[in-house]
# Entry
Amino acid sequence: MGEKILTINPNSSQYITDALSEALEPLRMKGGPAIECVTLKEGPPGIETHLHKAVVVEPLCRLIRSRDNEAGAFVVACFGDPGLQAARDATRRPVLGMAESSFLAALAVGESFGIIATQPTSAKRHARYIRELGLEARYAGEVAVGIGILDLAKDKKETLSRMIAAGKRLRDEFGAASVITGCAGMAGFRAAVQEAIGIPVIEPTQAAVTLAIGAARVGYA
# Structure
């Protein structure tokens, strides 16, 4: 078994995979495990509904099984953590979900966390997942930027402006001590948002890969 961390974008949008790979560059260190980002070609262009989450489960598991012998850990790089439990059944290797990992990272840096989302419709799905994980007492709330997943990169200046405004609302109105970027397509904006709002901003795939590196190194499989 190798130490490679296989990070899977479960939608079919290659530009999101490329953005994730760029965001993970600081974790690619000399002597560290290789970090490979791949696109699930069978996935929808964006994962924004429960149906979208359901249709990627089987191809996600097939991909994991096909790469099982070369990876030390896997990361599911979608904020809804689609197919996470099924993926864990498909391999003995650690499988990290980016949302679950970001919540753990947020708990480490502050009393409460908020989420910058793409659309208001995601709020119920995210709140339900947070309840399932038993973290609702630490959840400050969510603010959407009103931009769909596929449109985040079209006008980056506008996307950044809306993300900063959302982060400030979460800080000032919701009392969030940290903020999570709630979409893989937001990966490239983390540092600029953090600089603008002055509290920790967590990029979920970075959080998941950080945990995956540790899991692969100590051999949780």
In short: The mean pLDDT is 93.
